[in-house]
Specification:
heterodimer; A: 248 residues; mainly alpha; 12 helices; 0% strand; globular; B: 106 residues; 2 domains; 6 helices; 75% helix; extended
């Protein structure tokens, strides 16, 4: 265990936990309209308030919850719903993999607990924080704080949406669906710090939009990761080769 | 709660958790190949790009012309305000407010 990790005694852990909570707040603000919309659509689609809440508490994955609600209300069989959920969430594997180097000193039970709270939003907030810190290891308390902020607000937003249910219209129709991309945009811009990263973002964006238009589901995220990573690696290797070439 | 719904929802939870926990401990058990470690550097920005651009350029599932796409305008406003103030939350709030206004006007 290195010194940075040894310093993770309770006070430092509590500090990181609080930091995780506060750093996730902008993303939380962006996800609240989606939680409300999920609750509204779920109740309108025929699920009870309790079932709507159970899904938010047990599944805790926005896109697959929306999809499941739509499938339940159009009478799709359960096996298809579960398999669709699996397929839409395959992207989590890549996110977990990219977090794993920061969590090698963390006990397996910590990892298993943190995994439950790894949604797109908590993953992005956490890994951005770990990279800004520049340390070899990330604080598990930070990720826990991020996950708690997201989990609690997702549950509350779902509940409010479900209770308001049949009396309101879909809040996303007012334009609140823009809150999420707006939040991610402000997370993305500061990370474009070099020409290479600009190329990575451009290629990932092109790949994502093309895949989004052509392939159903959430596969466009994995396609973007694949193309973005290959672009980054190619440019990195080329830069290394140019640097190694002897100057004439 | 109806038993059928509870079973499906719990199974959804199980498969979702499996995707989350699947690879999170990989680096603890195995030494990652340097090439893999380097490629993982590009994952977060690629995920961000994937969550931003389709939502802005094809908000209704189809590509929209930039002239009439209010999402694109609102994104430009968000980016501009954020670049100016350096505060993410200010950019988001102004961006979303402009989006709601644009929706009313168009």
């Amino acid at each position: 265990m290195d010194d940075a990790n040894r310093a993770q005694t309770p006070p430092a852990g509590r500090h990181q936990f609080r930091l995780g909570l506060t750093k996730t707040l902008p993303v939380v603000a962006g996800c609240v309209p989606f939680g409300l919309a999920y609750g509204v659509l779920s109740v309108q689609g025929g699920l009870t308030v309790a079932e709507t809440m159970l899904m938010s508490l047990v599944v805790f994955a926005g896109a697959s919850q929306f999809l499941a609600v739509g499938m339940f209300s159009s009478g799709v069989d359960g096996v298809t719903i579960v398999v669709s959920t699996l397929l839409i969430n395959v992207r989590h594997l890549v996110m977990g993999l990219s977090l794993s180097p920061y969590l090698t000193e963390v006990k397996p039970w910590w990892q298993r607990m943190l995994a439950f709270g790894m949604a797109d939003e908590t993953y992005l907030t956490t890994i951005t924080h770990y990279r800004e810190q520049g340390a070899e290891q990330g604080s598990p308390h930070f990720m826990l704080g991020s996950a708690v902020a997201m989990y609690v607000s997702w549950a509350i937003a779902s509940l409010v949406g479900a209770v308001a249910g049949n009396s309101v219209s879909d809040p996303l129709k007012w334009g609140l669906d823009f809150a999420m991309p707006a939040t991610f945009l402000t997370m993305l811009l500061p990370q474009v710090t070099s020409r290479r990263l600009f190329a990575v973002v451009t290629s990932a964006a092109l790949a994502a939009v093309s895949a989004y238009l052509l392939i159903p589901g959430k596969w466009y995220i994995l396609v973007a990761v694949l193309v973005g990573t290959l672009t980054g690696l190619t440019l990195e290797t080329r830069a290394d080769r140019i640097a190694e070439r002897p100057t004439p | 709660m109806r038993a059928y719904y509870v079973i499906i929802i719990v199974l959804m939870g199980v498969v979702t958790y499996a995707t989350r926990v699947g690879f999170i401990g990989v680096a603890r058990q195995f030494e990652l190949h340097p090439l893999l470690r380097r490629s993982l550097e590009y994952v977060p920005v690629s995920v961000l790009a994937a969550l931003v651009f389709p939502a802005i350029l094809a908000p209704s599932g189809r590509l929209e012309s930039p002239g009439t796409n209010v999402y694109l305008w609102a994104a430009a406003i968000t980016a501009g305000i954020f670049a100016w103030t350096r505060k993410p939350l200010v950019g988001i709030i102004v961006g979303v407010s402009s989006m709601i206004l644009l929706r009313r006007l168009t």
